[in-house]
Write the structure tokens for this entry.
Amino acid sequence: MADLRAATRGSPLALWQTRHVAALLGRGVEEVVVSTVGDRNTDVPIHSMGGKGVFVKEVQAAVLDGRADFAVHSAKDLPAVTPNGLVLVAVPTRADARDALVGSSWADLPLGAHVATGSVRRRAQMAWHRPDLVFSELRGNIQTRLGKLESEGFDAIVMAAAAIDRLELVITSPVDRLEPSVIVPQVAQGALAIECRSDDVDTIATLVAVEDVATRRVVDAERAFLSELGGDCELPAGANASTTADGDLEMVGVLSSLDGRRLLREARVGDDPDRLGRSIARYLLDDLGGRSLLENAR
């Protein structure tokens, strides 16, 4: 049986993700490493490059032009709309969706603490709770960001908890995993997204084996929320869904101003992922005044 070819970014985390999917598939996978705009411009804020789609476009192109059979992404990096010719074929079991504060616990952050993050979502939500905080831009792979915690004298940095777990990082500084009551995570954070060509029936049949139905439902709900907002995954917005004991979905969505002075939040329960995500987004946009926040953020 010939190896499948997987398009992936070349960071340690991206390679871990691709190798994890290969292990789930139980077969050989050739890694087709692709450099993205986001990888090549580590000194430029993500939002100024057009959002986190800059981490996936070249990887998707490698699948579309036949250099690879499928791609493995951090699902949080995907815009809400899948390009023509591709299908989001599988979402494996999700890791920890929360953000992690590294360097200090949330409760112990001193007055006027200096926090580094490259995410407008994280910055805005933290500023809403703590207007006294001072923020700096933070880019680079996980190891680079951890190095800057000490070398640049930040009180704390923020990253995805899933990255810490997947790379099995040993961090001597305090690590505080922030509940959604403090920071609502990025849409689909902690989940992986596997894309392939929509007409490649053999590869689709192979990849669907790693789909986790429960994870797919919550990710679909969160991505529907993002789609209704306009599809840019670098908006100052977040969503987090989970499955209730009776099989329904409960979900919270937030949308804020870039400076965190205004934050809109809504939580609902429903059984249809698409309808649930979109209803929360429409409520924030139409009933709570969210459209003006988006106009100012773009």
Remarks:
- The chain has three domains: 4-92+191-211, 99-178, 227-297.
